[in-house]
Amino acid sequence: MVRPTSRRPLVSARAAALSGNSLTGLFALARARDALDLAVGTPGYPRPADNLIDRAAEAMRAGRNQYEHPAGETALRHWIAGMLGDGADPEQEITVTAGATEALYVALLSTLDPGDEVVLFTPGYEQFAAAASLVGARPRFVRLHAPGWRYDPAELAAAFTDRTRAVLLNTPANPTGRVLTRAELNEIGELCERWDTTVVSDEVYRSLVFDGRRHVSVTEIPALTGRTVVIGSLSKSHAVSGWRLGFLRSDPTRTETLRRVHELTTNGTAAPLQAAAGHAARSVDLAEVCAEMGRRRDLAQEIFSGMGMKFTPAEGGCFLLADIGGLTGGREDCTAYAHRLLDRAGVLLAPGTPFFADPQQGRGYVRIAFNRQAATLREAERRITA
Length: 386
Hints:
This protein is of the alpha/beta class. It has two domains: about 15-45 and about 285-385, Alpha-Beta Complex (Aspartate Aminotransferase, domain 1), CATH 3.90.1150; about 50-285, 3-Layer(aba) Sandwich (Aspartate Aminotransferase, domain 2), CATH 3.40.640.10. It has 14 helices and 13 strands. The strands form three sheets. Strands 2-9-8-7-6-3-4-5 form an eight-stranded mixed sheet, sandwiched between helices. A three-stranded antiparallel sheet has the order 10-13-12, with helices on one face. Strands 1-11 form a two-stranded parallel sheet. Helix 4 packs across helix 10 (about 270-280), helix 5 (about 100-110) packs across helix 9 (about 250-265) and helix 11 runs parallel beside helix 14 (about 375-385).
């Protein structure tokens, strides 16, 4: 038998090109070093509500341990529709997913074909660009300009072509803390209408908006009627990131496709946890969580500005994107700085480079998660100043 002289790659080109999520390594590093972790967004505040935990245990003991309907547990879908407050039909427009990550992939797989283009803002959540590439789409980046992290309208318009099929938004945004205004969303809507483009909007931090601002969903923009897929999650608002409870909200026609893709990817998420959230999620006072999170933002800003970092106050979400140039004089990049801080103080911050399409633009930034207990933030201050 003649053996081939060369072998095909063992994995797909798309998979081989992936670098993985940098936050996974940070999570492992924090645990291995017993560090005070302000890098990963895993909630330290709020705490999971007691009745959520109790309801989950009750559901398991009651036998809710098998498959749930792929669209999601009925009571949970009704709660999500009511929480959104935009008239969503829980039967035809809400789909429960295995976290916001599955929701993202289902939305992109349902919207994009290989070779299509998707518009993304940079800096942004690093998983967005990776997800677009993995489904075979081509990211087209639009730069957000420091210090306010706003886009240039001309640069945004120039990113659209006849191959643009989606715009991927995040409001409030990770890592910048920006909340897109109604005027900005109207501008994006006009471009999507002109180019026949869908908006996939990650609104997982919708309940965390500060200083009297109001979250504006893409579902409120007239030009985007019938052009939106909204991603949401209970991970941060209810502090159950390990439960993997996310959701999609879209019009009935598009939802039929979203659900087919969802059924072929995961077919659903944990039934007893859906049941618990469906009956107990409403007991969490989201307004109080937002007010408390705003106080933690203020404390984090006080602590890290006192160190010499610079940032625009976060308008929403649970992160600060901080400029460390005043601390390093440009002689040390964010990764080296983060490791030095970890070695000397046992405090872990996230290097900024993974959030930028051009890593060089992010070398002078770190991301700080402030969804922590106040005592945790004060302990970070104590360690660093010591």
